[in-house]
Queue: 2 jobs
Job 1
Amino acid sequence: MPSFSEKLKEIERVVAEWKRHKHYRRHGLKLRDVAAELGVSTCYLSNYVNTVEGMNFSAWLNSLRIEEAKRIMLKHPEMPIYEVGHKVGHPHYESFKKAFLTLTGESPEAWHEQTIGISL
């Protein structure tokens, strides 16, 4: 039976691969879905996210999505904000705006204008 340390390293490896492929961009993801996809228990994945990432699963998923949204906006400043949200796993603009505001303290439009200098 693997030790906790060995299990943690394995989870870190599969999570890193999952993130590298940007699977977090799919909308509707639940803890159980991601755990099954990674081949780990929901308990192990939840503990990993809480302990290593320092947040719950939902907050972690949103943080990945919002960082990806920022990268997309920097690379494609002309892309409509609602489309950016959809690309990162928020099919509804309001949920994207709320998640963005929660994590950054500003709306996606305000961040875009302040960071990129273009008002959409």
Job 2
Amino acid sequence: MIDCARQYAVQAHQRIDHSSKFTCQPYDVHLKAVAQTVASVTGDEETIAAAWLHDTVEDTTVTFHDIELEFGKPVSMLIFEITGVSKSGDGNRLVRKIIDREHLSKASPRAKTIKLADLMDNCKDICKHAPQFARTFISEALLLMEVLAEGDPRLYQQASQLINQCAGEIESSNSATGDGLSHRPLKHPLPSFSEDELQRIVFSVFRAKDISVPLHAFGANEEASEAARIMRDENLQVAGILDKGRIGGYVFSSDLGHHGRCKDETRPFRTGQVISSESSLTDVIQVLARHGCCFITVCGTIFGLIDRSGIQRPMVRMWLFGMITLLEMNLVERIKTTLPQNKWQMMISPARLKKAEALSIERERRKHRCSLLDCLQLGDKITILSRDREFITDLGFKSRHEMNQTLKEIESLRNNLAHAQDIVTHDWPQIIRMVNNIELGLGRS
């Protein structure tokens, strides 16, 4: 099991080219460190396997159900217990951290042992490579330690010593530089739009109710075999289970066998899996990233369902395209500010410049007034700004390569949106990353 978990986790993170944001190392370096720390205090296979898998739902396209199918319910539950359940719509960073801390407080001792190992490795990397963010991380880690006492006592002691040591080093550094606890906040890979503009696009235009579909439901006492037949005929992957006239749980089609009743296979709704019909699409995508499907309520009653196929709907595609358009407009303004009087022309190849000039001439012929800069491809604008070290730093990237990779992923998403391609299959990791950073673009961190 442990070896399978290692391979599964490493491949899941490699598929999205995931690396540590603090060290730029392949992400499996962190996974290995956490798994080895857990293995140093327990030989339990499920716990060590979950240690390897602990970030797959948080950071990759894998869902809790995927983990359950591969490794069983106990491993899936361990990962659920240590994965955050908060969403952007719940409030600012402080509010969301309180929600996630409350969720973690209810975790099993095995799950808390994994979280202690995770905190320890993150603490080492962040305090060494991201001293500005370390202040925030340490304060949040100290609060988490208050609910992790049921984890392995040896790891709890080691984690306490490490976190307190890092806190002391930060205080010493602050005293030496004289900047106290004030510090320049981390930037983010999204532009600094006006708050009104983003609020209108992100939270007001489309909501969960606009893309949800009615949830088919079966009675708790219905034969599982008959429900399975109907789900197969109707091509349903998920259905609700009625309990005293209300949907009180759900089943996947793969849950239903040839014997027993639907109530025997009913799954309870997990924390964070049910959202209001008025929730933003940001919240929808964050739930889908973890669970693969989310359930929609009206006046507290579950009535609808959204799965990942719903992200293909025109409304969501328009929403994503609008955000990318705002990003590109922001890049243009940055180029105009940093490279006035067309100095940017020296930053791209003659062939790319010639292509922009041809497009500009054609637009002028059609009476569409625009600047030559507006005629550049998104990739050209990225190339120009990749030479601006201050811009790279402002976005919170550690290297030109990291920034180029992120913005090129957004360019790929934009192209697939424009050509009506399958964005869930090809661009799901990019969608998650972009949506997770919207809140930073709003200054909500």
